[in-house]
Design goal:
Blueprint: E1 3-7, H1 12-24, E2 28-32
Parallel strand pairs: 1-2
Length: about 40
Amino acid sequence: MTNVLIIGATGSVGQVTRNYFLQNSNDSLTLMARHTDRYAI
């Protein structure tokens, strides 16, 4: 398992990247964003 940091996790590219990792890996994600109320996991 790898630790992955996604900076800008609520932006358009960040959302696609986040969803990809959630659906296709068992990596540990750390999400970083200015607007944390936009997280929709």
